[in-house]
Amino acid sequence: MSPSAGGLVVFLLSVQVIQSQDGWRVDYDQTGVCAAKGSRVVIFYNYTHPPGIDPSDIKDRFWFTKEKDGEPVDLRTDSEYSGRVKYECYSYSDSCYLIITDVREIDSAEYKLTLMTNKPGEKYTGSPGVTLSVTGLQVQVRRSDSTWLELTCHSSCVLSDDPEYDWYKNEEIIKTGSSLLVSSGSTDRYSCYLRGYWDHGSPAVYGPQRPSVSVSPSAEMLEGDSVTLTCSADANPAANYTWYKEHEDSPRASGQIFTITDFTAEHSGNYYCEAQNEMGRSNSTLRLITSSGKSGVDRTTMIFHIP
């Protein structure tokens, strides 16, 4: 089996590490690996045994990340890695490699190799091992100018081997590359995927959808009561909110909740909530008015949502 078949190998810090003890030695080809969630990782190593030990005396070699009752737990018997790990060696060679497929963020750990001989209790562990960091993908948004936004695919650790990304718009692929330019104010949804791994992409980024506004209390109110307006909009990144009254330049409030205390006729009018993030903005309007009661003195507040 070839480690290059059917997957991407991602390396970080390709530095040889030699661990030796009484003639035993493990050479790891890297101290750290950064991999995108869902991808495949291959860790290469070589081992050397003391002159007095025949290769046939090595009855097992396995990798572990945790111990149970002081003994290393073979990844092949760990339920969290079921069906996802393979140990391979080149023919007639002490050059071997560990394969982990469909890596997950919980796989982030230090991986160590243990060699066991047919003599009871004789074993050697190459320590420190290789640190695997598994990262999800995120889309970062940067304003290029007043018209365009630049989207880049970001990970929490540095993916090397010049990874390629596929960009999707509304779940349809539109481009392959490190970044994507989109028009500001678009409500389309954009996400990136590591090329070749279609099941593990970034969360989509998109501008705020039309906000919804709720009012409390929702029934008619007497003049002098308080009214609380709450605005919410589906958006990623999360939206910021600003409240305006029609024909006024300055905002009345910021944040999702806007409370008007001691409501009077002077508060009547159209109010709108604007939701904004790096991708764009959207707003929703409602009308608050007062009307005279039967006595002509008491007033009630009535609320109208404007489509």
Automatic annotation (TrEMBL):
The keyword Signal applies. The keyword Transport does not apply. Residues 1-20 form the signal peptide. SUPFAM superfamilies: Immunoglobulin (SSF48726). CDD domains: Ig. Pfam families: Ig_3. Residues 128-192, 211-290 form the Ig-like domain. Keywords: Signal. It comes from the Eukaryota. This is Ig-like domain-containing protein. It comes from Gasterosteus aculeatus aculeatus. The lineage of its organism: Eukaryota, Metazoa, Chordata, Craniata, Vertebrata.
